[in-house]
Write a structure and sequence with these properties.
Two copies of one chain form a homodimer. By secondary structure, the first copy, chain A, is mainly alpha-helical. Chain A is built from five helices and two strands; from the N terminus they run ααααββα. A two-stranded antiparallel ribbon of chain A has the order 1-2. In chain A, helix 1 packs antiparallel against helix 4 and helix 3 runs antiparallel to helix 5. At the A-B interface, helix 1, strand 2 and helix 5 of A face helix 1, strand 2 and helix 5 of B. Chains A, B: Belongs to the DinB family.
Chain lengths: 159, 159
């Protein structure tokens, strides 16, 4: 499971590099599907990953919206701010944590019980899904998207 | 890791159901990004998943192209044909298989060595990525895409 976090982080860094070749206007442009723009998608992935980890730890999650982060530089800064805590949590993950249960209450009062192992895989799938959306928008811009291949990235040290 | 295979299979079934409400013309229409059409994306995910598993088993993989499978019914039939073998392989997966090495040769003669654990996660990420592309095309059709949420699907029995 750890390997897929490392995969997401590598792919995310490559998308930042990809963004360097695209105007800020295009990065912020409202697009069809997902959360709406390329940069907001990257922001959203950082937000969701960190927030779930914080929730598992019983700490406050991220409450800010994208308005304060409308540049590649600010999104990268946010990532650099949150990443160490996520990395530490993932590095210390072990199978005994799989079945711990997160109890949470939805806005309508519904109570949810989610095994931590599901939450971790939810974070993984969430990011890969949104990156798939970026790949379509990249082709709409006539640009080659970042490769989604997991093989060949030397990830096997992180299982 | 098994959980993410089960997640992909559930989401895939929901996309088949989603396809029932869309005309064959729209399902086959060439779109921007990915492999080009909604139905070919579903076909491609089935093909890639089964083929990698076959390669790990040292058996022949899938050589047919999409031309013979240009309907929802045919894609579902292909899935039903391949799925049992994939399910069995995934069910019998254990951590001792992580570091087995697959040696393969590319078209240009390059030799690749990939740990089996990476191959399995490559299959997972590959499908989620392509499903993210479907979600954009769904919005272009003014349709709600299938949820990508992993939580709430009762997957925790499959770790």
């Amino acid at each position: 499971m750890k390997m897929l976090f490392h995969y997401n982080w590598k792919v995310r860094e490559e998308w930042y590099a990809w963004c360097e070749g695209v105007s800020e206007e295009e990065l912020l442009k409202k697009r069809t599907g997902g959360v709406g723009s390329i940069l907001e998608t990257l922001f959203h992935n950082i937000d969701v990953e960190w927030s779930w980890i914080r929730v598992l730890k019983g700490e406050d999650d991220f409450k800010e919206d994208f308005e304060g982060y409308r540049s590649l530089e600010k999104v990268r800064e946010l990532d650099a701010r949150f990443k160490p805590e996520v990395e530490e949590f993932v590095a210390n993950w072990d199978s005994s944590m799989e079945d711990r249960v997160l109890v949470s209450t939805g806005k309508d009062g519904t109570e949810y019980t989610d095994p931590w192992g599901e939450v971790m895989r939810h974070i993984i799938a969430h990011e890969i899904h949104h990156i798939g959306q970026l790949s379509v928008w990249s082709r709409e811009l006539d640009r080659e998207p970042v490769s989604a291949d997991l093989l060949g990235r030397g990830l096997s040290d992180n299982q």
